[in-house]
Amino acid sequence: MLRCPLQLVRLRLPVRQLSDLTTKFTGLGSFSNLNYDQLQSSLRTDSSQCEQFWKLIGEQQLNWMQPFHTVSDCDLKSAKIAWYLGGKLNASANCIDRHLATRADQTALIWEQDEPGNQVYITYKQLHAEVCRIASLLLQSGLQAGDTAVLYMPTGPPVVYCMLACARIGVAHSVVFAGFSAEALAARIQDVGAKVVITTDQAIRGGKTVELKRTVDAAVKSCPMVERVFVSTRTGASVPMGSIDVPLEKNAAACSADCAAEPMDSEQPLFVLYTSGSTGKPKGLVHSTAGYLVYTSLTHQHVFDYRPGQDIFGCVADVGWITGHSYVVYGPLANGGTTLLFESTPAYPDVGRYWETAERLGLTHIYLSPTYDLSRLRVLGCVGEPLNHEAWEWYHRWVGGGHRDIADTWWQTETGGVCIAPRPSAEGAPILPAMPMRPFYGLEPVLMDPATGAEVTESPAEGHLCMRRPWPGMARSIWGDHKRFAETYYSQFPGLYFTGDGASRDAQGFLHITGRVDDVINVTGHRLGTAEIEDALDSHPAVSETAVIGYPHKLKGEAVYAFVILKDGVSIDRLGDLRRELKRRVRDRIAAYAVPEKLLFTDGLPKTRSGKIMRRILKRIAAEDYDSIGDISTLADPSVVEALKQHHDLYQ
Length: 652
Ligand code: PRX
Description:
By secondary structure, the chain is an alpha/beta fold.
């Protein structure tokens, strides 16, 4: 296990020191000469300045087929968000065509295959041809602007071609992470109403093959709206092909390598991406074409200080998540950059994979989920202080050689792009360990007191993290359920966007994220709602009631702990089988990563007299933090707590 740091000592990543560089805007009128603090204060105090700022940014960041006439039309009280109205543009043209004059032969994509040493380079010219061919094929199949397509594919060039091909013809894509089960995939296909699904014969990850086409076959059985399944070739294995299945590459090769990019309205949905919330049903967050692209390209440039033509951006996220959308595909390509498509896992063939890849490919940036850092950190035995702080020190020392900048970035599927990050900083200002610190240009985070609903204005302080001002990259709605969108994000603190996270602010005003304040947990960087897992477990005929919580886990960041009450009459002899069946049920309904690490059968749960489960108590029991369980006298049956502690101890 000590291999990892030993390899790192030898590493010489060509990562620049960000603090040497300026992040000032050029050519942005009166904003050009302002430093970060001056710009933020001018945007915060004067709405017309804010409007002017986003106008100039919108004009500067993108190529427009028709200029916008209105910068924004937002009212957070009623969850109305719209940017760059009247404008027409195409996201695919902004990510490809506009770079062709100067970057046709520059590498756009580096595909780092599962087996190290098999990297494939794709230029902007090649990207253009591939995207056009697939876009032509999709048009031929009857897809048209306004339709949706589901993509169930591994990270690699084909999924990027398909995303951009959809964008080219005005079809909203919904990429479903290729680790989801057939049932979870079917639920998303049905919810988004996809006529077309695009998948891959098999994926390869960590040396193992994953049967994607077979999973799609199982999913589409319950999706009568699906007319066509395109199948991309990764392994070339023979997979069953039915009447609606069409080989992707073979058919695309016969199509035109020139397909016009359709002018789309600014607010046309670019994609729908499902994420977990605190209820059982995943939410399909809708992102716009113009605002999203303005914001991801701007944040990619400024948060990471990205220089197209010189830098190789290595975001190792899977394209199935928002990080992959924003910082593998749209941000880097809109900026004319070179971006990494990482097919493998952080531990294949060994835990030095990221660093070996970075060295071999000459990456200038690495962007990854901190869960993996935490896991290494714990494995290395560097525990003892608050986790985040340790992770930062570890990363700074081993990866950054003690002198490279580390950007802890805070954001969400809902926010479209990074909202809080050390960059943009006042030039040369220090970056403090383990906190994202500063809001991005034009954003105004506020801390709210959940008890009073009032803003917490003093510092240092803690509270629920909200955003006061809208920004172009924020999600516009939940697909098919705007009411739920308004209720989830805009009702708790009227007039503000509520993130679902808690945060603290230090005396200097810098922000630190304390974690979710709702029933959302984060397992190996994957966001999960505890209610989704409860729904899956509750569907088993032997189960009466369940309560699922997240607890700190040394390898996964958080892991799933399920407390299960069985129905009367279930034989104790069946417990072993039931444990397996219940885990299987979660795997089948959601995904392998959602399977409870611990599953405890119990006779009771700690409930208030009104029947509400006290999850706080379950979390303390799971963390064996018995001393801070606190007052249990308000429980309907306080003896439950002692029984749970004993069961938990026996189960270990
Ligand atoms: O709890 C926060 C955590 O990840 C959640 C968002 O998850 P998702 O939508 O899957 O997007 C992840 C990638 C952007 C947030 O509500 N989170 C995100 N960034 C940080 C974080 N927690 C602590 N520090 C961060 N930098």
